[in-house]
Specification:
GO terms for molecular function: phosphate ion binding. Belongs to the PstS family. By secondary structure, the chain is an alpha/beta fold. About 40% of the residues lie in helices and about 15% in strands. The chain is built from 17 helices and 13 strands. Strands 1, 2, 3, 4, 6, 7, 8, 9, 12 and 13 form a 10-stranded mixed β-sheet that branches. A 3-stranded mixed β-sheet has the order 5-10-11. The N terminus is likely disordered.
Length: about 425
Amino acid sequence: MERKILYIGAVVALAIVVAVVGLYLGQQTTQPTTPTPAQQTQTTPQPAQTTAQTPQSSPPQTSTQQPQASLPGCGEVSGQIVAGGATFPGPQYDAWIKQFSEITGGRVKITYNYLGSGAGQAGLIKGELAFAGSDLPLAPARFQEQRGKILQFPVVMGGILVVYNVPEVAYEKTGKRLNLTAEIIGDIYMGKIRYWDDPKIKAVNPALADRLPRQPITPVHRSDASGTTGWFTLFLTKAYPLWNQTVGWGLSVNWPVAQMGVSRAGQGNPGVAQLVLNTPYSIGYVEYNYWVTQRQKFDAVGGYALVQNGNDGKFYDPTPEAIAEAASEGLRQVAAKMGGFPSASDDWWQVVQLFAYPPRGYPIVGLSFAMIRTDYSGYPDPNTAAVVKCFFRYVLTEGQKHLVEGYLPLPPELAQVGLKAVG
């Protein structure tokens, strides 16, 4: 595999990733379609645990600075394009698009549709989208089919929260949040744990054990091919052997609870969030921003869970600090095993598996990727290629300083992968 970024560059990236987040923090103000066919489910051997020094960081907040109008090589670029895909980074793409429109004086119009990662990949391959957002890179078989036609590179990092609606133990009422392990979460989605007062749940929640009701659990999952599902099920695959052996991971999986008829399915992160909010005694998984923008509603009926990282045994509150710690550790694992980051024209599947379930920090974290074409001939707007390239030059430079709450910037060496791809 061609290495556009050598091992030493990756080590430097890991050494300064916290400094990057810290610099970003210092610039912030404090303030509280149709889905495509599912990707084949994957199974993953259980990883050996590794040790590394835990980095420290401060929580990122929503940016209030105005983006700088510095886009070398973009000049008077103009055009109108349609993109779409993952809902995980959707709020961040919305912010970037607004900022980019301001920088270009309104000459560029970009529409990003919340389709899900699978539909985004399919739309780009068919030539229906100018670029796709996908929380997982192309699976190996699809990558081989599209080699030389599609480039893929990370644009942002973030965490996935486990949210629940259990009024008896709502954070607003108790001031406490549930503790959950990978085994408990997996057993809920496999239908092995059916009630909120199950002994396994009580055992890790002694302060709330007497309040947990004898009510059936309604698991909520995605209805579309989803990168958020990919990272969530990859965590379960690596942290819970029985899940790995029976369910596996991917953009879509065969949910045992769906086959039992006891679950509900939502379109995109917004759909899952609303189903959990509106369904008493439910549980689901959403990207951080979909909780933080509705925190009062969630805390009134339930809240989010502290999830155990089985590598160190600790229950982690999904604070930005804990998510940043996990992301740093994940990148450290990639560097140690691969010697560097792939180029945008390479297969990123191994990176995803190494990044997931880090030895420390909040354990459900993920990268989000952009995918672009190498050839835009035949697109309605002849300026499509120029618009796409200029947009991602902004995203991977100035845009990394203007992030919505809940997202983390890339270290510079990782951002360089995409910058080299867009020229």
